[in-house]
Structure prediction request, 129 residues.
Amino acid sequence: MTSLEIAKWIHLLAAAVWTGGLIVLGFLVGAVRKATNDRGVLQAIARRFGVVSWTAMGVALATGLWMFFERRLTADRFQLKWTLVGIAIAVALVHQLTARKSSPAVRGALQGVIMLVSIGIFAAAVTLF
Prediction:
């Protein structure tokens, strides 16, 4: 297995952790809200997810950039994916910075946007490989 194939595998794993985590979190938050009114539980889940998801995004970015430069690809093929990644990061950052002050509806909407954009990233990636 070449180093480029290893980077691709790690990249896909990191992307799956980011997007899969969003999907699991979407279902988990609803279940936790039904089980308890303790906001501390949701905050603990969000903090742990933040560590895992931002780590996964960092790994995906690093391996994605490495593969791009290693393969000497043209930027135009990746413009949609890069745009979607930028949107996902920006919305996730806004969500993280405003979550304590936002209503549950606003938080849910932001999470939904992040999840949909992340799924769009996967769709864009499928056309590249």
Q: What stands out?
A: The CA atoms of residues 41 and 117 lie 27 Å apart. The helical segments are 3-35, 39-71, 79-98, 104-128. The chain has one domain: 3-128.
